[in-house]
Write a structure and sequence with these properties.
The protein is mainly beta. 9% of the residues lie in helices and 30% in strands. It has a single domain, classed as Ubiquitin-like (UB roll).
Length: 74
């Protein structure tokens, strides 16, 4: 199945800003992060179709997955 993967900030070193990606049916957000070799030590903000989801969220055809590094501000 095909999803759209968006990587932000320092995560861009693991792939392009945005790409259409062919993934296995039933893949989880965490599995996609592992596929693009994002280290498990980097905490991720995970957004699917505009909604924050856990790492074990299963993706569906056409989903848009956006991954962000930790965000800090003051």
């Amino acid at each position: 199945m095909e999803i759209t993967l968006k990587l932000f900030n320092i995560l861009r070193e693991y792939g392009p800003d945005i790409e259409r990606k062919e993934v296995p049916e039933g893949v989880t957000v965490g599995e996609v992060a592992a596929m693009v070799k994002i280290p498990k030590e980097i905490p991720l903000l995970r957004i699917v179709n505009g909604v924050h989801v856990p790492l074990d969220h299963r993706l569906e055809e056409g989903d848009v997955l956006a991954l962000f590094p930790p965000i800090a501000g003051g």
